[in-house]
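Title: Prediction job returns without error message
Component: structure pipeline
Severity: low
Priority: P3
Assignee: unassigned

Description:
Job completed but the reporter wants confirmation the result is attached to the right record. Sequence as submitted:
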Amino acid sequence: MKNKLYYQYAGSSLLLIFVFLGYVVRFYPSWLKGFDQALTSLVRAPYPNWNSFYLWITKFGNPSTMIILTIAFLFVLLVGKRYAEALWLTLNIGLIGGVVNPLIKLVFVRPRPTLTHLVHETSYSFPSGHSNGSMLLFGTLIFLVPIVVQNKQVRIILQILLGLLIVTIGISRIYAGVHFPSDVLGGFCLGLSWLLLTYPIYEEKRFVWRFKSKQQ
């Protein structure tokens, strides 16, 4: 695959950032205090005027919403006989978003911020599940858009909108008072590192499966 090494390098770098961030969260949380406080103050500056907006945005990262959207996208992919894409999406959401991220929370056991919570949360704080899940789902769609959309301008617009949605969901978790900025950064790094590391594998399998299906 073209640029395979670049994807692997970028993915490995993001994974190292996540590991380092997790190490700091677990053993030296005071190092992040200034970073977290500064960004939290910036994000929550318009509080409570933007409550309704961010409460609406954060719902796109809720587990129930993610499940419904994933099933819908899987249906579309399977109907279109995009089996490699469907498998990759399932692994991204089911394995990393549904299993790995919750288990990692149990390793770091980071308490939630003591700010007023706009939404109810019971799990630990690091890494942000909403940030990780949105990166995995909508990030996968960013990679898959070129396959189903031929018009370059439309493709770029859709990818930008999906990217903005990912970022805004992460910001909504800080605004809602249920995550530190470092939680959101950790969720993004974990999700994007997985996408970048596995995208070349998906591309290879997609090519092989397509080639075999044409020979039959």
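Comment from assignee: result matches the submitted record. The mean pLDDT is 93.
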